[in-house]
Design brief:
The structure is a homotetramer of 338-residue chains. With 338 residues, chain A is an alpha/beta fold. The first copy, chain A, has 13 helices and 15 strands. The first copy, chain A, has a seven-stranded mixed beta sheet with strand order 12-11-7-10-9-8-15. The first copy, chain A, has a six-stranded parallel beta sheet with strand order 3-2-1-4-5-6, sandwiched between helices. A two-stranded antiparallel ribbon of chain A has the order 13-14. In chain A, helix 5 links the parallel strand 5 and strand 6. The longest helix of chain A is centred in the C-terminal third of the chain and has 20 residues. Chain A is globular, with a radius of gyration of 20 Å. The N and C termini of chain A lie far apart (45 Å). Strand 13 of chain B pairs antiparallel with strand 12 of chain C, so a sheet runs across the interface.
Chain lengths: 338, 338, 338, 338
């Protein structure tokens, strides 16, 4: 085995917990030397369960520690920008949850700092590491079904988040569709123009937050491919995650996974299992694979991916989507500056 | 059994042939007394095979015949308008293939005549009579999965028509997407606004015809529902006909049919059968059911559906789609007058 | 088109009705000149609906008519033997519903007569003409998945027949499994040995009739392939018709068809449509294709298939299955003489 | 959290490695204090990777250690009997891989010892802990689809083991079908009678070993249910693991899992992914869940399941299967004493 990377986790809430668990249990490339959370007791609980020795409240302590080579940042979105900048200045290799920031100017500012410090910055677009979405990309890239013509992405959450969350989330396009913008670029390439429509159809409080809970986003790619994304905040049958790339000589479709393989038949028909309920179950392997790749790139000193620029593009597209919705017209990304 | 309706078929080309065959073999409500085609030998061949006694070249002869109660019109699209008007003036009950005309003014003119003569006019939107699309509508209408939020329609032809055909087809939106516009109205209701993008990605001659071969159309319905249609002229794996209505408490999805049910597994995975190749196979039952319903309405003197107004709306939406593509902006149907 | 064959249908009950309808409406190779049923009014009703001119009560009248070249026999099973013999002696080409008789001696007697008269005799094992079962056979025959190793057949009726029917049906193996015995020979080849077990698990009156309503039959084929058939008289989710041929380099599986392609998802999972309810719907195409092939063989004077010998083997295996159940031991077909 | 159980793993080959990894990484109820293998370097490598401090060559050392409460035995099958006996005498709680022994007399001997010492003994029939097979059992047990009538199990390995392995494996029924015998009892209950046929169809060396590589086993259960198992040593499309319980009011079917959810369509049809290749991938969760349950039973002092008696029954049925094959007749388990 190659050397292990000393890594600290900053932010041990829901997704930070998942990452820490993965780092300790499934990612042999990692040596977790510390966890950090401003809610110290949250970090302590994770550390106790997983046998991590060092627990701190203030992430600056970790940045000063020369033995720590890398940090995984999974704090609240609004703290990503300054923690990444601090970590970059401290020379740490950085894995940061998406998005870098909800505001394009902030993203640009972070990327400037990162570029100057030459540290690696990988963004947690975990869906790129899902085996089915990767398989679609492989098939399409191989050319065996011709060139891509149409992209369709369905991304629907099982239930709406709280009103509190929604208010500061950046809205549906930056909080939820942003995954699809990145997936669209991953599968097809750069986007020229975007048009977004949306409604409040399942949870009235989205109106209060000037947000939508249902949307369709049309994409025009530089290579002529056309695409449509549809999103909803409430798919009662579970977390609906599907993708289709229609090509000139065929089609590749990634369907939903299922809780089990059982089919039950009775006098009213057949019944089969729902998709997994949450992103944590659905993308369990993706969360592991993305961090494993990050650490391998650190060890081998190779470029990481998805990059800060990928994060910038996703935020830019998200802001353009909002602009499109507000103005009810297609927005050219080339002309759009956020 | 109720009385049979004396019916004549005008136009016995590809689709007229299908209708005549159905009328004779599967639709007991019909008594086919004559077939008509300007290519007399085409009509004669159909008549010979099916045992129909009367064959004429000029449809006016049939309109003068008092014993003929109904006509089924399956001639070239550009002749629908004047034949329907003539038939209406002659007091015949009319089943006409879609679209009534490619130009909204012509459609309005026909509908004026039909309204004055009080004859019935049913339009051949056969997909409304497909059992799976009907089942989706039933499920959604029942309310058991809440109210609709998102509509998705995939409609992809197995291969492009000839250049000759394309040139006079009215273009992709009026020739192909028009089915989807009607299906959208059938499933969800009236459309407020439409936005269309398209590309030439599979067959270069579409450019020459100022047409596209690939498109995505975004719909905004009066009830807040959002929708996306995607179309292609070339799905090499067969005729791709899928539909999804996502609702607040569930989802209803109509998938493709398959040539057979066989799954073959070997060292590279599983293989299963393609969808039926053409609309004639895929919608075989729909073609029968729509005409059967028409004849039952004639016998019982009940209103038919889909109506001339449905045809008018489909053409109007098709023209709006072209306008949207040309101007690259969403088009409000309320303000749009073709 | 080649010449049409003048054919008469003898027996116009449930299945005879299906055949007559198919002959008139879908099988252009046929000219239906007469129908016959001892319940004259049943034959008359069919003739009226389908426009058949001649209706008789006594089939001998038809056998004497020199203009009738072929007969399709769909009377009660216990009359097949003597009608086939009479028809053969009259020189008619014969299509007869399965089985020829419930008793092996009777079958042998019929086959002797047919052989002497040199007429064609095709047996109505319609499942051989199902497109999915044929596709499995094609795949396996092609050798692309190696040689066959295991055969599995599932054949389950939607609901039990009446007690009256069961009493004279020949029992489950001769009334129901007989189709599977023929299918097993069609897919794999000759059977050496059979072992059958059964229970009464869904309808107590089968006990009274010394019959079973649930069974599993193990087959050992001459080429070393092993097979298992399972049957039930009551599959409440519909007519369950599945087949699997497992081979040394892969597998071919024919699954059930479905009433429609709709999948509905809600908070308890996905729901999809049942298989077609009855053999008439499930094997609609098979009923047409088998008779079409028969008539083509008559016109071209080619050998028909499945033959009387196929019927004999199916009855022989059925009797051996009963013997196996009674003695609770495997029965070698080579030694078994019924 | 309840207290952790100090456990040692004896045998760290292929499956012992899986268990050790699971115990350390995924089973919080465990504290792995030592690993043991007669190939000390194998145990050492596992210990190094997983951070286990104690490594021994001779399992007796572990049995003498009072701090070790439980042992997990994953050595070669022919060593299970004496190690279990030694562990039982030492008062350890025991989890042992199946089967206890290949000879019924040996199994009985072990169970006598275990009974006297009152320790817990759980057998590693991991398929009982598969979520899909458990779901089938739940559905059937709930009574919502009536009572069971027919059981079908398909169990096919991706490729044959080595000749060396086969020679000492106990043969197909004791090495491979034994899982299905246990699953049959898990799903339906006790078996009265068994009939087995088999062939050598994929790998000639099975003949040399007086073994078969393909079989079908018919089961008659005490409650009247009938069942069929089919097994093959070579399913080139992957590890084929399916199960069906047909009931008086419906059916429950557990299908195969798939490597990914991607469907690819092209001009020859659709292609989808194979099942996982091996039992380690297919039953990954089952391996975790069975050991977790064992440890919970140890902590709560509850009875474990599957028990030594379950193992005894599976071996007995396996021996009866061999007897049936040799004598070519059904064997009553009640009369059969191995």
């Amino acid at each position: 085995m190659k050397r292990q990377v000393n890594i600290a986790v900053i932010g041990t809430g829901r997704i930070g917990n998942v990452h820490t668990r993965n780092l300790v249990r499934s990612i042999h490339e990692a040596n977790v030397v510390a966890v950090c959370d401003i809610r110290l007791e949250v970090a302590q609980a994770v550390a106790d369960e997983l046998g991590i020795e060092r627990v701190v409240k203030d992430y600056h302590e970790l940045l000063e520690d020369k033995d720590i080579e890398a940090v995984l940042i999974a704090t609240n979105t609004n703290t990503h920008a300054f923690i990444v900048k601090d970590a970059a200045k401290a020379g740490k290799q950085i894995f940061c949850e998406k998005p870098l920031a909800l505001d394009l100017a902030d993203v640009n500012d972070v990327l400037d700092t990162v570029e100057k410090t030459k540290v690696k910055l990988q963004i947690g677009f975990n869906r790129r590491f899902d085996k089915s979405f990767q398989r679609v990309r492989e098939i399409v890239s191989s050319g065996e079904i011709g060139h891509p013509c149409i992209l369709r992405i369905t991304n629907r959450d099982p239930e709406p988040p709280s009103f509190e969350y929604v208010k500061t989330s950046g809205g549906m396009f930056l909080d939820m569709s942003i995954h699809d913008f990145d997936m669209a670029r991953f599968q097809i390439g750069e986007i020229d123009e975007i048009y977004a429509i949306g409604s409040v159809l399942v949870e009235p409080f989205f109106k209060e937050a000037n947000d939508v809970d249902t949307n369709i986003i049309t994409l025009r790619f530089s290579n002529g491919v056309v695409g449509a994304i549809d999103n909803s905040r409430q798919a009662v049958y579970g977390y609906d995650q599907r993708l289709e790339v229609f090509c000139s000589k065929g089609v590749a479709i990634a369907g939903n996974e299922a809780e089990n393989t059982v089919i039950m038949g009775n006098e009213v028909g057949y019944r089969s299992a729902k998709p997994p309920y949450s992103f944590i179950e659905r993308y369990a392997d993706g969360y592991i694979n993305e961090v494993r790749q990050f650490l391998q790139c650190v060890v081998d000193d190779k470029p990481v991916s998805p990059t800060g620029e990928d994060s910038r593009m996703a935020v830019l597209i998200g802001e353009a989507a909002w602009e499109s919705l507000r103005q009810n017209r297609p927005i050219s990304l080339k002309k759009f500056t956020g």
